[in-house]
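Appendix B: a complete holo record

For completeness, this appendix reproduces one full record from the ligand-bound portion of the collection. The bound molecule is coenzyme A. The inputs are the chain sequence and the ligand SMILES; the output is the full three-dimensional arrangement of the complex, encoded as structure tokens. No fields have been trimmed.
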Amino acid sequence: MSEKNHQIHEKSPSQSNAEVIVRMFPSDANPAGNVFGGEILKHIDMVAGIVAQRHSQSNAVTVSMDSVTFLKPVFVGNVLKLNARINYVHKSSMEIEVKVEAEDIVTGIRTITGTAFVTFVALDNNGKPKHVPQLSLKTDEDRIKFKEGKARMDKRIKNRTK
Ligand SMILES: CC(C)(COP(=O)(O)OP(=O)(O)OC[C@H]1O[C@@H](n2cnc3c(N)ncnc32)[C@H](O)[C@@H]1OP(=O)(O)O)[C@@H](O)C(=O)NCCC(=O)NCCS
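The structure of the chain with coenzyme A bound, as generated:
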């Protein structure tokens, strides 16, 4: 594994947070107006990728998505807001948590409609996993998320199929 990321040893989670806002259109949904889960997954992957690349300052690819929930429906016309933060890093891998909120523009009602954990791996210029900066945990929330993220990552690695 490449260790060439020595310029920055540690970064706080807040340095890589990302938020994406996107409107849902009829082509994103079924004939009844319910937005496809796959459409939402695409945006989850994209916003998590921004966080992973901000943290690692390199290319980064998705290796797993888990605990994806669609708690409430998203409809055509809704404005989707996706918030992503980094919870945990190991060597090259990073766990990113994404929360999805849908806003009905007319009523102004905002609802949390989904959540997911996405694992990214940082790659060097040869496409090989590379070390990422460690996390500098600044807040109690950072410390709790890190601990919980580690427990989930340990499970992923245990269940990993090569
Ligand atoms: C990312 C990739 C290069 C890693 O290759 P690899 O041979 O699995 O490398 P390693 O076994 O050394 O694992 C590298 C890291 O990935 C982590 N990892 C790999 N698969 C994982 C999984 N399913 N869940 C969680 N972590 C995983 C390992 O734990 C390791 O983390 P660490 O460096 O923090 O300890 C390779 O899996 C790949 O190219 N996958 C396709 C990625 C892609 O294209 N995604 C887009 C959608 S297709």
